[in-house]
Amino acid sequence: MVAFDSSRLTAKEIAALLSDASASEIAALSERYAEDPRKQVQQALESAQRRLERSAVENSRVQAMYTLQRKLGGSGIIVGVDEVGRGPVAGPLTVGAVVLSDTPLIDGLNDSKKLSAARRETIAARIAKVALAIGMAFIEPAEIDEIGMSAALRKAMEIAIEQTGVDPDCVLIDGNPVHVHPREKTIVKGDAKIASIAAASIVAKVSRDALMVDYDAQYPAYHFAQNKGYASADHIKAIADYGLTPIHRTTFCGNFAKGPRLF
Q1: 162 known ligand binder
Q2: What SS3 string covers 40-76?
Q3: Which of 55, 150, 155, 167 is 20 to 30 A from residue 144's alpha carbon, by CA?
Q4: What are phi and psi of 58, to 5 degrees?
């Protein structure tokens, strides 16, 4: 063990080093300052060790998502598919399709609903950088009204898979059977279990949320930046006050819409 020298750094400086250290740096700093008697240093070492343990657990969780993906999808090209925006009363249905390699692991990969908006943005950027292929599809409200949600979902998934530009050996889809591809396999809660499905849920969510923020600038009375098209109290009141916009799904608004479209 390296002898500790308290004259070189203050306890506060050591604590700051530990708070910003990587896993390998924590190991080295822990060895160096293990016998430092200062309470702040020992507390910082304990905090860093807990962070290492949490990181190991998180890494194991993400690794399991890649392992299960390969187990279910086989050795070939796997496309993960997920949708967002099935339930809102405004805005498009959005489907993402993503192909990931077995490495590198994408830290923090998870069901998009379990991540903060800021975390989704960060992970989506990482997905864009390392994914082998990404496909995206949007089905607009008027078409959802015309063909129904089930048909809209199948169409969006077909488009998103095609947009990846690959011929998949397996298509892994979150939820129940959709019958959108001959090599389809579905996994309930797959967005929390399969790496590429989680990635698809994140890129779809980030893309759709950005679009709803743009719509908010166009239709500010409806609070789309906040509600993302879901039937929040403010959104329902805006519909009652101002009617429906072209981005509303009329078949979803029958219980609270009054009057014709006003835009």
Answers
A1: no
A2: HHHHHHHHHHHHHHHHHHHHHHHHHHHHHHHHHHCCC
A3: 167
A4: -65, -45
* Token digits of residue 156: 């969006």
CA angle 54, 55, 61 (to 5 degrees): 90
Q: Write the pLDDT tens digit of every residue in 18-29.
A: 888 887 788 888
Q: How far is Cα 215 from Cα 208, in angstroms, rounded to an integer?
A: 11
Which amino acid type is present at position 76? G
pLDDT lower than 50: segments of the chain: 1-4, 6, 259-263
Q: SS3 of 231, please? A: coil
| Residues facing residue 137 across a β-bridge | 95
CB 18 within 8 Å of CB 44: yes
Which pLDDT value is given to residue 155? 98
Element (H, E) at 134: strand 133-139
Cβ-proximal residues to 221 (8 Å cutoff; 6+ apart), any chain = 238, 241, 242
Please tell me the pTM assigned to this model.
0.84
Q: For residue 246, give the amino acid letter.
A: P
The answer to whether the annotation marks 174 as part of a ligand binding site is yes
Residue 53 pLDDT: 85
Among positive and negative, which fits the CA dihedral 223, 229, 235, 240? positive
Residue 241 in marked binding region: no
Helices (H) and strands (E) in the chain, counts: 9, 5
State the number of CA atoms in the 13 A half-sphere of 181 facing the CB: 25
